[in-house]
Amino acid sequence: MTSTSPKVSPFLEPGPYTRANSLAILQLSRDNLQPVYLQPLSGDHDGYAEGAVVNTRYGSFPHSTMIGIPWGSQIRASKVDTGSRGRKRKRIAGDEATAGQPETPGSNENDAETESASRPDAASDSKKGLGEATGFIHILPPIPEIWTMSLPHRTQVVYTPDYSYVLHRLRARPGAVIIEAGAGSGSFTHAAARAIYNGYPTRAAKRKGKVISFEYHEQRYHKMKKELSDHGLEGIVHLTHRDVYKDGFLVDGKSPEADAIFLDLPAPWDALRHLSRRKPPQQSSSLSDDDGANNTDQQIKEDDSQWVSALNPKKSAYICTFSPCIEQVTKTVSALRRLGWVDIDMVEIANRKIHTVRDRVGLHLPIDRGVNCSPKDVEEAMAKLTEIEDRFREHSRPKGTGDDMDLADDEPATNGAGAMVDGGDVDGEVVPSTQAWMDGRLVTRGEPEIKTHTSYLVFAILPREWTEEDEAAAAAKYPCGAEVKVVGSIDKVSRKKERREMLEQQGGNRKARRKERDEKLA
Ligand SMILES: C[S@@+](CC[C@H](N)C(=O)[O-])C[C@H]1O[C@@H](n2cnc3c(N)ncnc32)[C@H](O)[C@@H]1O
Question: Which residue stretches does the UniProt record annotate as biased composition, category Basic and acidic residues (predicted)?
Answer without folding.
Answer: 116-129
